[in-house]
Amino acid sequence: MLQLSSRFHNVAPFPRGRRGRLHVVTGAAVLFVLPAASGALRAQTSRFADVVRISAAELPAFHGYPVEQLGVMACSRRPGTAATCRAIPCQVDERDSEGRWVLEEGPQPSRDNPPDALDANDDLIFMASDAGDAIPPNILPTDGPVAEVALTDRAGGATRWTYVVALRDAVPQAMPSYVDYDPATDRMFGRRVSLAFRDGIPSSLVAAEGPARRDGAELLDRFKVRGTATFLWGVLRFSRNEDDVTSEFVAWRKGPIRVIRRQRQWVRIGWGIRSPTFGSYTYFYRDFAELPVSLRLNFPPTYFFGAITIRAFLDFRDLRGWQLLRPDADAPLHIDGTASDAKAALNDVTASWFALRGPQVTLVQELALGSTLATVRQRLLYREDGTHPEPPEALRGQLPAVGYQLDRWKDVGAGTHQLTSVSYALPPQMDVRAFMRSRQTPLLVTVRAVR
Hints:
This protein has helices at residues 341-344, 432-439; strands at 2-3, 30-33, 51-55, 70-76, 83-87, 90-93, 123-127, 146-152, 159-166, 180-182, 187-189, 193-198, 201-207, 217-218, 220-231, 236-240, 245-254, 258-270, 273-274, 278-285, 288-297, 305-316, 323-326, 329-334, 353-357, 362-369, 377-385, 398-407, 415-426, 444-449.
């Protein structure tokens, strides 16, 4: 048995051309239709964004099959009628012999050995919302292996099914994609937003749906990372910002379910000193993006520096008319461009997530610190002032600036430290608290070989 979560680490996308395939078969027992858009999401439940990840170790009968012959099918079965099945968007994410994700595009691409064949360390992923009804597996039109995947919502009790199949002689069909990526502009496109990078830093967040999603409304002025500390036993105090971060773009991949973007980064501290190099990945899905960061320190951070404070926040262009939601308060805070004592008090709030609800989309930002950073204090950061500058920035002021402030680093030791930022783009009518509660109870995924 596996568990599913819409947040998981070290997963990479499905390369171009590797789509699910299927036959078209008609008969009394079952009708298989050509791949098409997977249909409307089943209501706007709190599970609509969940992504299923199945380790290929759970699919031993499929090992060695060409990736192009693998597919995932979902079926609909009504009393007195034939079952109707369709191929749903899916992708296989390959690892090399050392367990690293294979990224086939970009300045430093990598390859699997053997390429394009399912190995035990690969992953198969698809959207939970595409699952369907249970059917007798013997009606599936394949002489290869079949695995039944049951998805059980432990909170609501409902179960949905999909079927992993291998089709030796299937005719390839174009599979719809939930995401897109333009390497020329370094921009990723999902269902409700697009995200772009400049010099390795998120630089653009556009809210738009459908065909207009490439030219929607720009929301973001700048993603800001500001660090302050003392040096030489407090004699010197210095600060650094996102312009002091150097990025090296490594590679990328794109598939129907997600895009992955990999880079290496380090911070120019000064006095001939730079931070250790850390790797960062962006996993971009239809409804969310995940940015896990791993950093290895040879010395505790306070070995050289004291009073360390790191602020990471989104400086928005103008969200007046939007609302801020947070876990510690039921009533939303209205963003109107003015400062107040209530807004200033937000900077004393301990929070792991916040949400910004607008007319087209609700943006949810969650930050999780790894166990080695458990002693670091994580507080909300909030500024709402349209006139006060905080350079570098393109537009004066913050309307608003929202993020997190991290301090109290004195008990953090040497070693590898991890943190993960997850950003969701939800429909504006979504119950954010119900959605966040569902993240705490992942779907139960059971894989069973049936042929």
